[in-house]
Amino acid sequence: MKAARFHTHGGPEVLRVEEIDDPKDIPPGHALVEIRYASLNRIDIHVRRGYPGIPIDLPHIPGADMVGVVREIDPNTDTDIKKGDRVLATPVIGCGYCRYCSNGEENKCSKWRMLGFQVDGTYREKIVLPIRQLVKAPDYLEDHEAGSIPLSLLVSWRALRTLGGCKPGDTVLVWGASGGTGTILVKLAKSMGLNVIAVTRSEWKADKLASLGVDHVFIKGREDISKRAVEITGGGVDLVVDYIGAETFNDSIRAVRKGGKIIVFGVESGSNIDLNIRMLYLAHATVIGTHTGSRGELLDALRFISRKRLRPVIDRIYSIEDVVEAHKYFEAYQHFGKVVLKTG
Ligand SMILES: [Zn+2]
Fold first, then answer.
1. Where are the beta strands (DSSP E) in 74-137?
2. Which of 96, 193, 251, 307 is placed for a possible disulfide with 226 were both Cys, Cβ 3.0 to 4.6 Å?
3. How far apart are CA 255 and CA 216, in angstroms?
4. Are 38 and 25 contacting, i.e. CB atoms less than 8 angstroms apart?
5. pLDDT surpassing 90 at residue 268
């Protein structure tokens, strides 16, 4: 089967499409899935470049998202997933036994493993996964849409609902709203009845965000966004979703209302800043760090979007053969929405 993988860390050009052996055995409790689509996430870029201090086995196959069809399944496992079902995979799996896993918080498990990070991912034609990692794909979504959503939907749901506790009428500020996760997050926020202030870096992306129905769109660098957010809301936003990090975090504190929350699940612009702690406590602000999410949250999020018939924004579909081009395009921030890989 074909797989896109890298043998050394580096730029997009280290990715190679190679023939590798088909999976041979289906261990107890596992299934063989023929992958149709995978999608690109920022984590794929970090893993390809190499996380300082987090070694991974090489060669390595990136990819946290997938949709595919179950071709073989352990017949002795009692499950409602059958041969021929169209499935997604939860990006994260835990040990299943620790205090966090027992509470359905496998993303906090000390042995957590994410597809495409600690273990080989989804940029390939076939994969063997534990059945407990599989989830039926929503019927109303096309293959390329379904394959683009797991990780972005999961982190968005966790930020807005699980941790943000958002209620209809609340206002959320989203930095970097035009990427794969940003576009799902703002569409999810609108379908929850939230007011959305979205920030992006260019005019054409601002126009596209407006067409998604967001309430206010700002272009970074053109005005004082935290000040405008406070003006618009008459005191500050209820929630800020910040995965940009160093460049935006102080503005996130300035934008939040008294007692508001800032959810942090990424640091695209760097992780170290000068922080005025006084600003935080005078704002009674809560800063919540998180990453990924649980199987239970993905199931809840999928139920919600199925009721709302919410569709992800797909920017481009690349063939797995063009994975280098796909990574170059993604890293240049030219996309609006998800960039998808056709694997099969
Ligand atoms: Zn665990």
1. 86-89, 92-93, 113-114, 126-130, 134-136
2. 251
3. 14
4. no
5. no
Beta strands in 21-133 (DSSP E): 30-39, 67-73, 86-89, 92-93, 113-114, 126-130
Say how far apart CA 166 and CA 175 lie, in whole Å.
Answer: 17
Provide the pairing of β-strand 134-136 with 67-73: unpaired
Distance 94 CA to ligand 1 centre (A): 5
Question: What residues does 60 pair with on adjacent strands?
Answer: 6
The torsion of the CA quartet 201, 207, 211, 216, rounded to 10 degrees, works out to 60
- Cβ proximity of 340 and 316 under 8 Å: yes
Q: How far is the CA of 97 from the centre of ligand 1 (A)?
A: 5
Q: Which domains does the chain have, with CATH numbers?
A: 2-149+312-342 (3.90.180.10), 153-289 (3.40.50.720)
| pTM strictly above 0.70 | yes
Tell how far the Cα of 312 is from the centroid of ligand 1, in angstroms. Answer: 31
Residues with CB under 5 A from ligand 1 (ion): 94-95, 98, 101, 109
C-alpha 242: how far from chain center: 13
